[in-house]
Amino acid sequence: NVIDASLLARGLELTLQLLELGKPVIIALNMIDEAERKGIVVDPDKLSEELGVPVIPTIAVFGRGIYRLMAEAIRAAEKPKAPPHPNYASPIEKRIRILADAVKDYVGGLSSRFVALKLMEGNDEFRKLVDSKDVLELVDRLCAELTNEFGRDCFDVIHQERHHLAMHIFESVAKVKHGAAVPLDEKIDHILMSPFLGYPILALVFFGLFYLAFSIGGFLEELVLAPFEQLSSILASKLNPQLYPILYGLIAGIGGGIGVVLPYLVPLIFLMSLLEDIGYLSRAAFLVDVFMHKIGLHGKSVVPLIIGYGCNVPSIVATRILPSERDRTITALLAPFVPCSARTAVILALVGGMLGAKWALAIYAFNLLIIGVLGKVFSALFPTPPTGLIMEIPSYKLPSLSITLKKTWVQIRNFIVFAWPVLILSSLFLGVLDAFGISEHLNSIMAPLTQAVLGLPSKLGLTLVFGVLRKELTLIMMYQALGTSDVLSVLTKAQILTFVVFVTFYVPCISALAVLWREFNAKIAALSLALHVIVATTLAFLVRMTFG
């Protein structure tokens, strides 16, 4: 059980519930340095005595105490020992014991005391588990007695008692230094979260983030792609016309991953991880809360949407934090419209690299506008008023470079292990189709969309189809289909904008669709698919008409 030492009283409420399970528990008293910085000094030995379980002080970000913690965990696993359960006020404790005795035959491997508490809290899952009329009648009678005695319902009585016990333990094991100066965190927050300066700073932070990612990516792309382009030119002059497209497909797949996707993806993910580790992303979510309410969504909806800038899959999963099915469904439908890191690579490489940074920022601004409009439409269709936002604002932390790099590597590894091989195979497959003249036939099937509606060369039809697998594929396969990475030499600026707008809004990758199906149902996944096709086609057509 990892507890934030700087928020010990709150963390202990979960600890007390874990102790009720009757399973071996070890406390990792983490962030003790942060607690001391706030003037809170916790005695780990005294806390261990109060709870009856081992307490190991740690500073995880620097690896302090981790070896001792793991050694204690191994000892507990080898010789498991049930911890003592918390003792509540006599009227509550007496009724818990009565009910625990009554449910012993119904709990299986669970702690009867834990089940008794959950029944008294009104947990429906545990009522189904017990499934005994006599026991459930006993639960109702005992809860009615507590309600009469304390003047509150059973759930509130137990939670207030747990809170009271957690506060009592905190006061006995911790010393708080009063009269300290205003913490630096609060001084910074007065600026970063003020209604006047907070929003301009937020805009500057994200402008700086994308500008840095674009600048680093553009420099590396030019540096890395040059040898691959030279190799392609040599092969074009040496090989017969039927073999060349196949080898070019292989080179485009390998070179595209190294020279196009990674140069934009790595800086973006690293900088996003850095903002998260510092503690700024949660403050950004707080600032954007007011806009979420204007489009009729819960303030917490901003959290999944911000996660979506990294990847839409965890973004959809993160909708679980929302309190109502209505907010969860609307947010999950909006989340895939947020440009993930893969689509950001496309935007930065094509629009930023070919047309300039201001056009790339315009795409993002346009994307936010469309998400806002769609959110307003969905909210009008489901007019339940959203509730307010209550969220924890973490302390600012000096990020650990090693941890930020590890987090970046975890996300990049997904591209290297899964997406890059798919990219190479797809690029090679397209090369084979080109070599045997099959791609022309398949592109002609897509021509009503690519040529008639979007005004793009028909040879880009297959590129859009493969993009459903991974959004990075659209960029690499576009280069391959056009036969060059100098897109401006074969497409107009209007065509580049049309292509990027379509890719930004059209069908989520297959992983996002699968998660939508799993988290919700097939109807929601199908609705998302149809919505993206309609929105992307409409917007891309309007861009073509406006700039063409």
Question: Main traits of this protein?
Answer:
single chain, 548 residues, mainly alpha, Rossmann fold, Helix Hairpins, 3 domains, three-stranded parallel beta sheet, two-stranded antiparallel sheet, 25 helices, 3% strand
Explained architecture:
With 548 residues, this protein is mainly alpha-helical. It has 3 domains: 2-78, P-loop containing nucleotide triphosphate hydrolases (Rossmann fold); 90-176, Helix Hairpins (Orthogonal Bundle), CATH 1.10.287; 198-547, no CATH class. The chain has 25 helices and 5 strands. The chain has helices spanning 8-20, 32-37, 44-51, 66-78, 90-102, 112-120, 124-130, 133-150, 154-173, 184-192, 198-238, 244-278, 280-294, 302-307, 312-317, 325-334, 341-355, 357-381, 401-435, 438-453, 461-466, 472-482, 493-505, 510-519, 522-547, and strands at residues 2-4, 27-30, 40-42, 55-57, 174-176. The strands form 2 sheets. The chain has a 3-stranded parallel sheet with strand order 1-2-4. Strands 3-5 form a two-stranded antiparallel sheet. α3 runs antiparallel to α9 and α17 packs antiparallel against α23. The longest helix is centred in the middle third of the chain and has 41 residues, at 198-238. The model has no long low-confidence stretch (mean pLDDT 84).
